[in-house]
Design a protein that fits this description.
It is a single chain. With about 140 residues, the chain is mainly alpha-helical. The protein has one domain. About 70% of the residues lie in helices and about 0% in strands. It is built from 5 helices and no strands. The protein has helices spanning about 1-10, 20-25, 30-50, 60-90, 100-125.
């Protein structure tokens, strides 16, 4: 399972970032990011379609704003998890030289942003079926 989650985030080798990916894998940080990626959009869109099912919120612009906000939040959480987790791992194992750059963290956060948006859209398509007023959102 650990390798499967790592492959998803590394786009099956297309975005393998050498030391960054190696230490993310060794520190088990991909799993932590995956948990946030799955849970936050699920909770937010469940609340949007079930308890907050209101006609004033049933607008594509509001839905799109929520989608962008959730994706940004999850990508910022992933940036924080990866930077602090890798730093802790390197300090614990007394590793001083790596080829990790800030660009690696940024690109990883962009990948998480896209995955969050896709997963949010899927959750939205499923959860809207039980909604009465927001049933036509996003389409």
């Amino acid at each position: 399972m650990k390798e499967f989650i790592a492959n998803i985030f590394e786009l099956w080798g297309g975005c393998y970032f050498a030391d960054f990916s190696k230490y993310m894998f060794k520190a088990n940080l991909y799993q932590e990011v995956a948990i946030w990626l799955v849970l936050i959009p699920l909770i937010v869109f469940f609340i949007y379609y079930k308890p907050l099912d209101h006609i004033k919120l049933a607008k594509p612009s509001i839905w799109f704003t929520i989608l962008i906000a959730v994706s940004l939040i999850v990508s910022l959480i992933s940036f924080n998890i990866s930077s602090s987790g890798i730093e802790d791992y390197l300090q614990a194992h007394k590793i001083t030289k790596t080829s990790i750059t800030p660009t690696d963290y940024f690109l990883f956060s962009c990948i998480v942003f896209v995955y969050t948006a896709i997963l949010s859209f899927i959750y939205s398509m499923v959860l809207k079926l039980g909604s009465t007023k927001s049933r036509c959102i996003p389409f």
